[in-house]
Amino acid sequence: MKKLKNENELLKKAILEGVKYGEARGAVEFEPTDSASEKIEYIYRLLVHDKVIQPIPEDQISQKSMKHKLAIWASKMK
To answer: Which Gene3D superfamilies has this protein been placed in (predicted)?
Structure first.
């Protein structure tokens, strides 16, 4: 897994867009006390469920791989 140039900024964008996506869909309501890792996992699983992104094999899922996948998703947004 090759790190993207601006992966941290893309991850922040992915979290913001993922929160908007989940709340607009009516699937979730995030609380201010939710940690970034909880948001990352929920957004990742929601996007996989909705077939927006390809899933990572279950034995390879980690916080790092979910962050990377979301950063890639954010990089493809306009």
So the answer is: Uncharacterised protein PF16691, DUF5062
What's the CA gap between 19 and 54, in Å, rounded?
19
56 vs 69: CA distance, rounded Å: 8
76 has a pLDDT exceeding 90: yes
Over the stretch 53-73, which tens digit does the pLDDT of each residue have? Answer: 999 999 999 999 999 999 999
Place of tokens 């791989």: 65
User: Comparing C-alpha atoms, which of 35, 43, 42, 44 is closest to residue 65?
Assistant: 44
Does any domain span residue 38? yes
Supply the range of the domain harboring residue 61: 18-23+34-78
